[in-house]
Amino acid sequence: MANVVRTLLMGAPYFEVLPSAARTASPDTQEFRVDRRGVAATALILTIDVTAVTATPALTVTINRVDPVSGKVTALLASAVIATVSTTVLKVGPDLAAATNLVAQDYMPPCFRIDCSHGDADSITYSVGGMIV
Fold this sequence. Notes:
By secondary structure, this protein is mainly β. It has no helices and ten strands.
C-alpha cells in the first residue's frame, strides 16, 4: 500500500510528486490515480531535479504500475542511480522509443506509483515533478 494516494485530473496535467528538499532517507511512496473524465492519458513525464549533493548519495526513482483489482505493483521504469547535481527526465508512453533507464514504451496506467529510493544516508536535495499527456 502506498503511503500517499492522490487523484489527478486530466484538466490539470502538471503535478508535484515531491517538493525540493534535502533528504537522507527514502520518502513516502506516492500513488496517483488519473481521473480521465473521457480524456485518455497516454504518456507520463517525470522530471527529477537534483540541486545539491553531499558525499555520494544514491537515488533511484521508479515508476510502478498498480493493478487496482489485485493490488499488484509492477515496475514500468527505473532510473539509473542518480548521485550528482543533474536533471533526469523519465518518460512512459506507447509511441516513444524505449531507452534503458529513461524511456519505457508502454501505456500510461490509470493508477501508478512513484518510489524514490535512497541507497545510503548521504544528503541529496531534489524535487520530482510530473506531467500526464
